[in-house]
Amino acid sequence: MRGDDDRQAEMLIALTPDQLVPTDHPIRRIKPVVEAVLARLSPLFDEMYATRGRPSIPPEHLLKASLLIALFSVRSERQFCERLQYDLLFKWFLDLNVGDRSFNPTTFSKNRERLLRHRVADAFFAEVVAEAQRRQLLSSEHFTVDGTLLEAWASLKSYRPRDGQDPPTGGGRNAEVDFRGQRRRRETHASTTDPEARLYTKGSGQAAKLCYLGHVLTENRHGLVVDAELTVAGGYAERTAALAMLDRRRGRKQATLGADRGYDTRDFVAGLRERGVTPHVAQNDRNRRSAVDGRTTRHPGYAVSQRRRKRVEEVFGWGKTVGGLRKLRYVGRARNELCFKLTAAAYNLVRMAKLETMTA
Asked: How far apart are CA 218 and CA 235, in angstroms?
């Protein structure tokens, strides 16, 4: 039987966002973890704000909103503020009522600058990792490191000589730019949109792009991210960031570090051994001698690390397809690093929620 097209709107309805979110929705397992982490960060939030003045957007809302942007692939902060007006799941996650209005996009972006100044992303990410440690989900001995290119929010046409001489252009609004015959180096050229972005490529035959490098250190038990960092692109950036992330974990038991063959250099392997870490680095013996010899490769654990290290690609895959990191949405390294670390925290929360269902 065909139903009637009843267009009459209800005058009164007694529902809360909590009643409309499905009881088996994965985000219900994520929210308690986030609230526990935010409760431990409350003293830091108190230091960030003055005791007098007009109330601003709570930092809890700012961090929860950043997680929603990553979890639901929201394209921009403005789009998030628009969606928050009608998406009841978003309002439930932020503990808002149905009738509460969304944030003003300009005010929202301005308030997020406070998170940047006080390095709240670092503290939030550290608390998420500590929560995973409390749940005994982390390995304390075996780790993997890797890096990936993150395309900057800047066009190749913005990469111009520092002396102000522009390359020849054609007509039209989106003028054509001819770079043929020009040597474009970072010493002589810079992006007018994002000066910190660098023209870089990780492999021969690949097109160079204006980009940053994102680095993660994962543990090998469940593939959770234990440290993350975003740097300017460069030939030594991955190995330098790897050692820096290991140094931040000093005092904790470390046994092995897996990595691809791009890390197979004498300086990096020697740096690992100085820190008491066994270099389970893939051998790069193409027309050269590998820095990793039979003292390491003969042990069964080396083969295990080589299999486990490939799970680090899941972090980059999720971050680029779901978390919106395929093309960065901010200008400048500091803002993009804030986004990168919060996206890594979001990945950990999703992974922890999944592990909870598997062990239940």
From this structure: 22
**Residues 257, 277 contacting (CB under 8 angstroms):** yes
Strand, helix or coil at 194?
coil
Rg (CA), the chain: 24
Closest CA to 215 of 158, 269, 143, 283: 143
Show the tokens assigned to 226: 């234990």
Residue type, 69: I
Cα 191 from Cα 209, distance rounded (Å): 11
Element (H, E) at 146: strand 142-151
Q: In this structure, how many other beta carbons lie within 10 angstroms of the beta carbon of residue 1?
A: 3
Summarize pLDDT for 111-163 with one digit per residue, the tens. 888 899 999 999 999 999 999 999 999 988 899 999 999 999 998 888 887 77
- Tell me how far apart the alpha carbons of residues 258 and 312 are, in angstroms, rounded to a whole number: 10
* CB of 91 closer than 8 Å to CB of 98: yes
CATH class of segment(s) 139-152+211-334: alpha beta
List own/partner pairs for 126-133 with CB under 8 A and 24 or more apart.
127/37, 127/40, 127/41, 128/33, 128/37, 128/345, 128/348, 128/349, 129/224, 129/225, 129/226, 129/227, 129/348, 131/33, 131/36, 131/37, 131/352, 132/224, 132/348, 132/352
Alpha helical stretches, state H, the chain: 17-20, 27-40, 42-48, 59-71, 77-84, 88-93, 105-117, 120-134, 237-247, 266-274, 294-297, 300-308, 312-321, 333-359
Chain position carrying tokens 């050269």: 288
337: Cβ contacts below 8 Å, ≥ 6 apart: 121, 229, 230
- The pLDDT tens digits for 173-197 are 666 766 666 677 776 788 888 999 9
Cα-based distances in Å from 16 to 11, 60, 100, 214: 16, 20, 12, 40
Spans of all domains in the chain: 17-118, 139-152+211-334
| Cα–Cα distance list, 293 to 18, 141, 239, 269, 280 (Å) | 58, 21, 19, 11, 10
